[in-house]
Structure formats: structure tokens, C-alpha cells
Amino acid sequence: MAAEIHPKPQARKPVLLSKIEASQDVVNTAVIIPKEDGVISVSEDRTVRIWLKRDSGQYWPSVYQSMPAPCSCMSFNPETRRLSVGMESGTVSEFIVSEDYNKMTPTKSYQAHQGRVTVVLFVLEMEWVLSTGQDKNFTWHCSESGQRLGGYRTTAWVSGLQFDVETRHAFVGDHSGQVTILKVEQDNCSLVTTFKGHTGSVTALCWDPVQRVLFSGSSDHSIIMWDIGGRKGMAIELQGHNEKVQGLCYAPHTRQLISCSSDGGIVIWNMDVARQETPEWLDSDSCQRCEQPFFWNFKQMWDSKKIGLRQHHCRKCGQAVCGKCSSKRSTIPLMGFEFEVRVCDSCHESITDEDRAPTATFHDSKHSIVHMHYEPTRGWLLTSGTDRVLKLWDMTPVVS
């Protein structure tokens, strides 16, 4: 009797719903309109476009608004339909979008910065427009009067901004790799603390107000989860990208983090697991396993008549070890290492197959991502790429 053939089950992955192509230049920011089959995009080609899905299934612009300068960022509030657009010139222009999304009416403009606006946020509860720029300034304006309320000078130009309404804390990520936490009042702000964990610039921030956790992505390919609410200074590192992290979104109902990188990678992280902090790397003049001297330890080299060795570190215990005592590689997903990393021989023996079980899934968007936006009610993800294409994804097969 012939053997019965069972097809392999298909791996769950994002489903590409639609591609939107028509921009003349890179789309810097785009958002999905909740409860509508629509997308709003701002582009380096100086345009703001509102795309609505037609009967043909294609997305076509219902609004095509030319701006006086390239559009670098935007914020859209669905409740008020207020659209805030940041530009290369340092100006933030505001519009009210009509209920049918066929018209946008200018309301006011703020000369917020002396350089390119990098992030803009509208906070309805405060009636504030927060913005950051390449002029190294964080500013906030009153959205009713248009008046500038205050500002803060950062150490480097800012590339990430989040705001917690309950505590009025602003999280500001900059090109030096630092995250600054500010307490913002009506007309002043005060420095709360700074975090420095990245070796490259901060490229994306994401705030979860329920768990009170901040995620920061960086050009060093890593993501760090900062436990703000725990007040213990806990920082969990996530290593799952091969290129610069470009966007972070959090799905609170499933406790999953979505991240994307410039090589087109989309990673879904399960944050509903007990993760462990990566250890501090220890300093030593000799291998902490075999006690062989490292190459700068001239005295021990001379005394033992041995050639010094190169120093490495075990990613699991943090000990300084030589290459011979750390010849093994392993994934350590609960410590954030989804790719194989160097571990000492002792730690390698202690890592079980269960410890190696992945806590993330990896997907290829097939375009170089510059920005992404997640719409949780439908489970849709929007990615914009350097190829000037917007892609709409159904993420429910993987975010569930």
C-alpha cells in the first residue's frame, strides 16, 4: 500500500493585504485610519495624502495636499481628526480632516524648530503639541492658542519621543544613544533621569502605559525594554535584528512587541515570558576559567612564560574568558539572544533545549522599512519603505 503523503503545515506569517504605490519620494510616516479603509501618508516629496480604498480594491488619494517643505513626520488623532505635520523647515502645520476624509482644512502653524522636525505628537488630554527636531530641542505648544509653552535642550538631535498622559513624563531618545525622561508641566519641565544602554543612536521608542514599560530601538540593531513601573532600573536586551531598528509597536492585548529594521525584517516578540537581564561584563587580567593571562597582562605572561590571549565575554554569565574556554555558541532567548552568541563552556552545558526555545518569530517584508504603524483593533500593520511603497499587512496570524 502506498504511503499517505501529509503536506507540511504552513508556518504562520503576516498576510500582505495591499500595496500602495504612487509617491515621488520616500514616505517618512504613514498611519492606518481606525475604522476606515484608509491610510494617511507624509512624504519627502512635500505631499500629504489620504488614501481611501475604492470598490476596485485599490487605494487612491482622496486628498493630495502640497506642503511648502518636505514632510518629515506627523501625528493623527482619530477622535478629533486633527492632523499635525512636521516639516524639514522646522514648522509644524495642523489640519482638521473632514468626516468623509475627502478634505483637510488648515488650522494653525507653529515655528517649533530651527531644523528638521523629527517627531510630532498631539496630546488631546493636555491640548499640547509636542515636537522634537534636529536643532536638539524638545518643545511643546498649546494646540488651542498656538502659543509656545516650553522647551528643553537635549545633548544630541532627537529621533524618538513618547509621552505618558497620567504622569506627564516625556521620553526623549537621541542620537547619542541616550533616553532622557522629563516631567512636563504647563510652562516648564524638569529632568527626572537618563538611561544609557545603546551603543548607537536611538531610532524608535514605544511606551506601554499599562505595564509602564518603555521600549527603545537603536542603530546598534538592539532593543532594550526599560521597566519604568518596577522602579528597579531593570533593563532587558532583545537581539533579533541584523540592521538598524526602524520601528516599534506594542500589542497590549497579547503582550507582543512588533519591531522592524532597515533590512525589511519584522520580528514579533513574546513579552509574556519571564525574561532575564543580560549580565554586566566583568573585568579581569586573566581568563576567569583557565587563568591564562590576557595579552595586556605583561607581568603574568613573563612569570608564567606564556603568550597572552585575547579577551572575550560569556553572554550568559558575563565572565571574561579566553577563546578556548568559550568555543561554544548558543541562543539564549529568555535573555533576548535569538541568534547564537558566545558562551563559556560551563554555561553551554547548563543551557537546556527548553532554554533554547525561541520567544520571537521572524518575517521578511521584502522592502527596506523606514517606518511602521500598528492598528490594534483590526490587527493591521502598515510599513513604508525606501522603495516608496506602502504595504498593509494582516498581522492576526502572528499577533494573537
Describe it:
A hairpin with a 3-residue loop joins strand 19 (213-218) and strand 20. This protein is mainly beta and 400 residues long. The protein has helices at residues 298-304, 345-350; strands at residues 15-21, 27-32, 38-43, 47-53, 59-66, 71-77, 82-87, 91-97, 104-111, 117-123, 128-133, 137-142, 148-153, 158-164, 169-174, 178-184, 189-196, 202-208, 213-218, 222-227, 235-239, 245-251, 256-261, 265-270, 312-313, 320-321, 328-332, 337-343, 360-364, 369-375, 380-385, 389-394. The chain is globular, with a radius of gyration of 24 Å. The chain has two helices and 32 strands. The strands form nine sheets. It has a four-stranded antiparallel sheet, with no helix packed on it. Strands 2-3-4-5 form a four-stranded antiparallel sheet, with no helix packed on it. Strands 6-7-8-9 form a four-stranded antiparallel sheet, with no helix packed on it.
What share of residues are in beta strands?
over 45%
Widest sheet, order of strands: 1-32-31-30
Helix content: under 10%
Number of continuous helical runs: 2
What is the residue-averaged pLDDT? 90
**How many runs of DSSP E, i.e. beta strands?**
32
Termini distance?
41 Å
**Low-confidence parts:** 1-10
Q: What is the alpha-carbon Rg in Å?
A: 24 Å
Shape: globular
| Largest sheet composition | 4 strands, antiparallel
